[in-house]
Amino acid sequence: MERLIPEQTSPELAGTAFVHLDGILYASFSTPDFASAASLAARVGEVAEELNHHPELRLGWGSISFELTSHDADGVTRRDLELAGRIQELADEAGATGDTQVPARYDIAIDTVDADGIRGFWKAVLDYDEVDDDGEIELVDPRGKGPRFWFQHMEPPRTQRNRIHVDVYVPTSDAPDRVQAALDAGGTLLTDEYAPGWWVLADAEGNEACVCTSDL
């Protein structure tokens, strides 16, 4: 099935608890207690079996969250939108409240002239695994907890700036507010040349961070 980008999914997700980021639809709901959350999980399970499309879910006391993606398409498809709609209907029927916390992904970028020469050190010290992302070797936490590390080639070395910076991925619709919040907190906008793909910011001492969006 066709892989969809956020601009295609946002009209149908409007009014729901679901947010599209990085090839996944995210939603979290609050319920009165654990039993209510478990009951909602069971009802979603029945729908998932009916559609033959299954979400990842996390269940807690008075909370339940969902992640929807189509692994065979490496992103969001119509199947995910259909399941998201059904989950939202079940959540409404159960009196569950959609949470407003914005999903995000965090990457650490290291400037280097020789990625192969330093990658092994970071892999060892972090106890991470190597993955191939479209020809670029990156490091990921096998436990699924820590940020991804990637290596940004620079030639020649840029000694006038820090060599490590943070990339923060947020939904496209939330990026301008995140940038403005950073500026209001004393940050500086270094460039918005690549917006809405990413904005480059710095704190008062010149430490850099990028607020990024994803087209998946």
Q: What proportion of the residues is helical, as a percent range?
A: 25-40%
Q: Could you say which structural class the secondary elements and strand pairing correspond to? A: alpha+beta
- Global shape: globular
**Mean pLDDT across residues:** 94
CATH architecture annotation name of the largest domain = Roll
Q: How are the strands of the biggest sheet laid out side by side?
A: 9-6-10-13-12-11
Low-confidence stretches at least 5 residues in length (pLDDT < 50)?
none
* Beginning-to-end CA distance, first to last residue: 14 Å
Please tell me the total number of domains.
2
The percentage of residues in β strands lies in 25-35%
What is the CATH domain class of the largest domain?
Answer: Alpha Beta
Per CATH, the superfamily of the largest domain is 2,3-Dihydroxybiphenyl 1,2-Dioxygenase, domain 1
Reported for the largest beta sheet, the result is:
6 strands, mixed
| CATH fold category name of the largest domain | 2,3-Dihydroxybiphenyl 1,2-Dioxygenase, domain 1
Tally of contiguous helical segments: 5
Radius of gyration: 20 Å
How many strand segments? Answer: 13
Helix-strand pattern: HEEHEEHEEHEEEEHEEE
